[in-house]
Design brief:
The chain is mostly beta strands. It contains one helix and twelve strands.
């Protein structure tokens, strides 16, 4: 399945800017830093066992990354948002094994059209999590973390606040989302906190 990278998402947004420049504050583009703390499940394989043996270990990880979103407002206070984010870090503390999680979400967004503009949204879509191979820490080389990936349904409920700086440019000091994903055959609950710049067209 094709999954956009941060560069491709940024390019896609930039291609739309000339076409929407004449719009009357109908399009809102956001880009910035994002933090997430999802539960990450890794499979650890026994290197010294006569038969193949793997155990699953789940731990919450602090992941850093990016978020881009675009909202088309068909009413001054109501719009449709497309939200893309990617978060990265170590899958297990002390291991070179990495975890990448990308989320692709869409849904309605309501906002108060003022110079100080709070907003809220409910988003639905897909989450994809990939694990890189590496040694399992604290096992003396007896176990290794297996590479793998999983995808599933995702939803996010949250909001934030935008502050106007100059014409067409705003700052988003905080956006907080409560995210739920369905990965590894189970349900994961996680916070996502983002901040960055906002463009209005």
């Amino acid at each position: 399945m094709f999954r956009p990278t941060p560069v491709l998402v940024a390019i896609a947004f930039s291609l739309f800017i000339p076409a929407i420049a004449a719009a009357q504050d109908n399009v809102v583009l956001f880009g910035g830093y994002s933090y997430s703390r999802p539960p990450v499940t890794v499979a650890e394989s026994c290197n010294l066992c006569a038969q193949a043996l793997a155990v699953e270990v789940t731990n919450n990880r602090n992941l850093n990354g990016w978020e881009f979103s675009g909202t088309y407002r068909f009413l001054p206070f109501l719009g449709l948002a497309a939200d893309f984010s990617g978060h990265y870090g170590a899958s297990v503390s002390g291991s070179s094994s990495s975890v990448h999680q990308q989320d692709y979400l869409f849904g309605p967004e309501v906002s108060l059209p003022r110079n100080i503009s709070p907003f809220a949204h409910v988003l639905f879509g897909d989450s994809h999590q990939s694990i890189g191979a590496g040694p399992a820490p604290g096992t003396g080389g007896a176990y290794s973390i297996l590479a793998g990936s999983t995808s599933g349904f995702a939803t996010a409920v949250g909001g934030g606040i935008d502050l106007k700086l100059i014409s067409h440019m705003w700052v988003r000091p905080i956006q907080i989302d409560y995210m739920v994903t369905r990965l590894h055959g189970g349900t994961q609950n996680q916070p996502r906190v983002s901040a960055g710049l906002v463009l209005h067209f």
